[in-house]
Amino acid sequence: MSKTITEFCCPCGCDCEKKVIVEYLYLDLQTCERCVGTDNILDEVMRVLTPALELAGFAVEYRKVEMKTVDMAIQHKFVSSPTIRVNGQDICESVVENSCGCCSEMSNTDVECRVFEYNGNTYEIPPKEMLAEGILQLVFGRSDEECSPDKYELPENLKNFFDGKKSKSGCCCEGNCC
């Protein structure tokens, strides 16, 4: 009689050994150039990586989640827009942000969104190579981080975004004037 031993791929103990869940978390895909651009690049990367990962025996899930409310942001422990996670881990090791005109206009408040640092350069829309490398590192390498931090607090920047968007929706255009 043989036994099957399951090895866990991350410290949280989840059985994600042969499953890859890529999540794209964002604030807006209608007006935010950063979110739209990152979405397009990530779609291209996933079209290439998915068959390769499946060939390697992984089940691949690709999800897009719009952070429509404060509650959703808290539920997903959302720290910055846009965010790409693999099996719960951010592909970026740190969060760097700068002013985002689109999201600021949408919420009528100053909002900073994520920029991506890669090979000594900063990008508002990440290069394909960066996304592919980040995803593959989390699938095949870097897994020393916890899948989700125990303590989470919605960043002030996101509180301001949601508050501003909510107050702007009270105008005659119901928030569609941007």
The largest sheet, given as strand count, sense and whether it forms a barrel, is:
4 strands, mixed
Whole-number tally of structural domains: 1
How many strands appear in the DSSP assignment?
7
Whole-number radius of gyration? 18 Å
Low-confidence stretches: 1-13, 144-148, 170-178
Q: State the end-to-end distance.
A: 66 Å
Which percent range describes the beta-strand content?
A: 15-25%
CATH class: Alpha Beta
Structural class: alpha+beta
Task: State the helical fraction.
Answer: 25-40%
Mean pLDDT reading: 83
Which fold does the CATH topology refer to?
Answer: Glutaredoxin
> SSE order in H/E notation?
EHEHEEEHEEHH
> Which CATH architecture?
3-Layer(aba) Sandwich
Explain briefly what this protein structure is.
This protein has 178 residues and is an alpha+beta fold.
Q: Strands, helices and their partners?
A:
Blueprint lengths: L18 E8 L6 H23 L3 E8 L3 H6 L7 E4 L2 E2 L5 E4 L1 H7 L4 E7 L2 E3 L4 H13 L15 H13 L10
Parallel strand pairs: 1-2
Antiparallel strand pairs: 1-3, 3-4, 5-6, 6-7
Note down, in words, how this protein is organized.
The chain is α+β, with helices and mostly antiparallel strands and 178 residues long. The chain has one domain: Glutaredoxin (3-Layer(aba) Sandwich), CATH 3.40.30. It has five helices and seven strands, in the order E-H-E-H-E-E-E-H-E-E-H-H. It has a four-stranded mixed β-sheet. A three-stranded antiparallel β-sheet has the order 5-6-7, covered by helices on one side. The chain is globular and about 50 Å long. It starts with 18 loop residues before the first strand and ends in a 10-residue tail after the last helix. The N terminus and C terminus are likely disordered.
